[in-house]
Amino acid sequence: MGYDKVIHGHYEDLNNLNTLLRNYIEIYRLLVSSTSELNTIPLAKKSEVKDALDRIKEVGNLIDDLLDVIGKCEGSYVKYCFLKNEVIYENTQKENIKTEIHDELEYHN
After folding, report:
1. So what's the pLDDT on residue 16?
2. Residues 31 and 59 sit within 8 Å (Cβ to Cβ)
3. How many CB atoms lie within 10 A of CB 23?
4. In sequence order, which residues have a C-beta less than 8 Å from that of residue 32 and are 6 or more positions away?
5. Global pTM value
């Protein structure tokens, strides 16, 4: 397997982690608003509100864990992109690009 394919798979994993993070953040926000509403209901028991707060804390911990993993993973992807850019930059010859553009313009005229 080529390095490009490995990095592409790594990028897909990173995207999946970001999607998972987005989902957990939505769940977190819904739990917070639901708990806030529950807390305004006079008939709600304190234990119900405490249970809801515990669930919020659990989801918050999952979000923190995901942020840690994403932080560790994205560094290698960014480094790969930087190095790839350096190689492309060093191997790009200005005259070849000018010739390609000139030939393409002549072809269309």
Report:
1. 92
2. yes
3. 11
4. 56
5. 0.69
Residue (of 54, 47, 49, 28) closest to 38 by Cα position: 49
Determine the Cα–Cα distance for residues 28 and 67; give it in Å rounded to an integer: 14
Digit-coded pLDDT (tens) for 52-100: 999 999 999 999 999 999 988 888 888 888 888 888 888 777 777 788 8
Helix or strand holding residue 16 (H, E) = helix 3-40
Classify 18 in phi/psi space as left (phi over 0), alpha (psi -120 to 50) or beta: alpha
Nearest to residue 35, comparing CAs of 58, 8, 10?
Answer: 58
Q: DSSP letter at 107?
A: H
Cβ neighbors of 97 (< 8 A, separation 6 or more) are none
The residues spanned by each domain of the chain are: 3-108
The amino acid at 99:
T
Q: Evaluate whether 59 touches 24 at the Cβ level (below 8 Å).
A: yes
Contact 56, 31 (CB under 8 A): yes
Residue 15's alpha-carbon distances to 6, 26, 63, in angstroms, are 14, 17, 15
